[in-house]
Write a structure and sequence with these properties.
The chain is α/β, with parallel strands linked by helices. The chain has a single domain, classed as Rossmann fold (3-Layer(aba) Sandwich). The chain contains eight helices and seven strands. The chain has a seven-stranded parallel β-sheet with strand order 3-2-1-4-5-6-7, with helices on both faces. Helix 1 packs across helix 8 and helix 4 runs parallel beside helix 5. The protein is globular and about 50 Å long. The protein starts with a strand and ends in an 11-residue tail after the last strand.
């Protein structure tokens, strides 16, 4: 029987890669995003249902669940920001926006889906997204590091609260080659320099992240919960010689 998976950020680089892998598994997908054209293009490839809207509106999450229905086997919140700047430049609005999109949105998405997730076929799974910047300090990352740190804390709290019926895990990537990071990676020399800061000497790609997300949603990960797992080329834990 096909599982029903809800994927926030379905029009993004990582979200769309997750959607394609889940489609290969035969899952029924509900894709949420702001870019209607990208959602519809991906839906044409995967047979997914599309729900376009603004995640900064609290009412939107209930609207999503009205489309999804009363049962849900998995939820992925693959939404994020890359808002870099010095503490002097960052404003209250920057901190609030990053927190809302990354952390509050994840909490509201799980809250709205809670009763449906409890009715999943064989226990359900939620995958959230933290960041290497919540594990290792980087200059100019105060706002996004704080927001992604909140996601890590949310993951642990919800994993304890919602066990044993619902598993909650988070993926903490390093910089990945997606449209969201394009402004940082458009300069080839900068991209190569950042890649060189990783033990594996390359940047991540969406599929690197997507394969772990799909695994965490599967029954093969049925004894994994409350984990923040780095997919980061070793950057969070390995110090290398330059």
């Amino acid at each position: 029987m096909a599982r029903k998976i809800l994927l926030y950020g379905g029009s993004g680089g990582i979200g769309s890669a997750i959607a394609r892998l889940l489609h290969k598994n035969g899952d029924e997908l509900y894709l949420v995003g702001r870019d209607v054209d990208k959602l519809e293009e991906l839906a044409s490839q995967t047979g997914a249902h599309c729900i376009a809207g603004d995640i900064t509106s609290e009412d939107f999450y209930q609207h999503v669940m009205e489309q999804v229905g009363k049962e849900l086997d998995g939820l992925v919140y693959a939404v994020g920001t890359i808002n870099l700047g010095s503490l002097r430049r960052l404003t209250k609005a920057d901190f609030l926006d990053d927190f809302h999109v990354n952390a509050m949105g994840a909490a509201l998405a799980v809250k709205a889906a809670l009763s449906a997730l409890k009715k999943g076929q064989n226990g359900s799974s939620v995958v959230l997204f933290s960041s290497v910047a919540a594990q290792q300090g980087f200059s100019l990352h105060a706002s996004v590091g704080m927001a992604k740190g909140a996601v890590s804390g949310l993951t642990l709290s919800l994993a304890a609260e919602l066990a044993p019926k619902i598993r909650i895990n988070a993926i903490a990537p390093s910089l990945t080659q997606t449209p969201l990071s394009q402004s940082l990676l458009s300069n080839q020399q900068v991209a190569e320099a950042i890649a060189g800061q990783h033990a594996l000497k390359r940047l991540g790609n969406p599929e690197d992240i997507a394969h772990l997300a799909v695994f965490l949603l599967s029954s093969e990960a049925s004894w994994i919960t409350g984990q923040i797992i780095g997919v980061d080329g070793g950057r969070s834990s390995l110090q290398i010689n330059s």
